[in-house]
From TrEMBL:
Residues 1-22 are annotated as: Disordered. This is SDR family oxidoreductase. Transmembrane segments: none annotated. It comes from the Bacteria. PROSITE patterns: ADH_SHORT (PS00061). Belongs to the short-chain dehydrogenases/reductases (SDR) family. It comes from Exiguobacterium acetylicum. NCBIfam families: PRK06701.1. It holds the Pfam family adh_short_C2. Keywords: Oxidoreductase. Residues 1-13 have a biased composition (Basic and acidic residues).
Amino acid sequence: MREEQFEAMHQEARGQTQEQQPGVEYAMKPEPIYDDPDYVGSGKLTGKVALITGGDSGIGRAVAVAYAKEGANVAIVYLNEGKDAEKTKSLIEGYGVKALKIAKDVSQPENAQAIIDTVIAEFGQLNILVNNAGKQFPQDDFLSITPDQLKETFETNVFSMFYLIQAAIPHLHKEDTIINTSSVTAYRGAPTLIDYSATKGAITTLTRSLASSLIEKGIRVNAVAPGPIWTPLIPATFSKEKVESHGEDTLMKRRGQPSENAPAYVYLASRDSSYITGQTIHINGGDYITS
């Protein structure tokens, strides 16, 4: 029945676009599934504090909800999507934990310390950093990628991770975790998303290298590489035709939902993954192996 629901939503989502990036979830029809009613928390993150960039919508919202179900207090960072952020804050609080929303541009280096300081001031600790914010600008012609586009894509997708991790490390301790959002495009490439794919490749290598660097502190670093997932970034960046066919070239013949990614982020944040670092979990409906 669950699979039938996802397939029905895939058909309903055909043809819609948005005029702004990174896009807003409240305008999507149907709205992405961010809370799987079959997922029941078991206290895996009780007493923990998580910070999620891009936490207002999409995969970030789904992770925030799952973390709340597991007992974590959650801070979300977003750019300017205030309506989505307020809903996510309400969803988190609905599970009896504390929520904090922070409107900051993570691509700007001066904001990283301010974000971390705000979290520490509110919660007194930080245990889980999820670097999830991202942008993409499809271009049919590689020569159309301008220096400004290249800079914006790398500043948001990669540089922001360096800034936040550097600001967070003094507050992270043994058994704390860093989780980065990579992408299937880092592994199979994407001819119209070359700069975006390059950032995701950098994130994959950052994850591996940082895992080696922080293991002596007992801090684990891993990544999740989603495939075609129904998030605001899709209608905000692709044409109607691309939105219609989004995910149909996977083995499962459909796009995925944010809620289908969230359990992996819970796993990597909890002691269930205590012997895992420097690794990437692939959630893509069989996308990569079809290439």
